[in-house]
Amino acid sequence: MHIRDIFQAHPTTFSFEFFPPKTDKASDDLFETIAQLQVLQPSFVSVTYGAGGSTRERTHDLIVRIQRETNLTAVSHLTCVCHTLDELSAIFDRYAASGIENILALRGDPPRDSPDYDRARDAFQYADELVRFIKSRPNSPDPRGFGIGVAGFPEGHPACPNRLKEIDNLKRKVDAGADYICTQLFFRNDDFYDFRERCELAGIHVPIIAGIMPVSSKEGMVRMAELALGARFPSKLLRAVERCDSAESVANVGVHWATEQCRDLLDNGVRGIHFYTLNKSDATRRIYENLGVKDSLALRAR
User: Fold this and answer.
1) Rounded to 10 degrees, what is the CA torsion of 54, 275, 78, 179?
2) Catalytic residue check, 248
3) Helices H, strands E: what count in the chain?
4) Residue 261: band (very low, low, confident or very high) from pLDDT cuts 50, 70, 90
5) Is 44 inside a domain boundary?
6) What is the count of structural domains for the chain?
């Protein structure tokens, strides 16, 4: 389903994000996770995309498998990094042939094993350029073209300390043709509400969905900070984690914190919630249970 139709049908969307597995065993495990989460009837699921060639192929393979073997709508991540114009054209030809209708367009980070990678070799330097390219594609599965999402940063873009310029950059992505904004993870809802209001003041009126990643372990918090390039952990959350004496109790704290985030977001009219699942189902299912519903359709009816 085209992302515009999803937002039109549901005043509040609920979506999950996965990353491509590295082995056949991991692929089978992931599909078991997807099956467990499918019963929650998410609005859509997305699959991340790395700068390496093998990772890219696994992203495409996973997106196509979701499209063919489940009743879920799949959104594929796509980055500017390490791509020529011909490579990008070939990717969209493959997506169109596979019936993939929706893309999350990102600038992306250089490959970890090539920190000195010269981005001047890329066809596009910024996500707004990629959005314009996607909009120009003549062979999308839908007459309206591909559905397009872009990233937003409630805590600030790590590469742009000027918060005024940051919103201007985001508006360029929206003006180029983006249909919605999916935010990076955050742990203070006030950061999201401030971001949402600043978007409105800048004339950005597309749906903004909130990215939520439950804390699962103390080690995971360090990885989150690295993943989000400086995610801010509130002192109350840190204090709660420090009181924990087991991995299970840390996970419980993470689920509780994320549940309260979601409850507050729903009470304040969030357009959608996007769960960064880390390819696991337990935390997301528990959050749904804590909210007092069996699936996202019941949440949307509230």
Assistant:
1) 160
2) no
3) 12, 8
4) very high
5) yes
6) 1
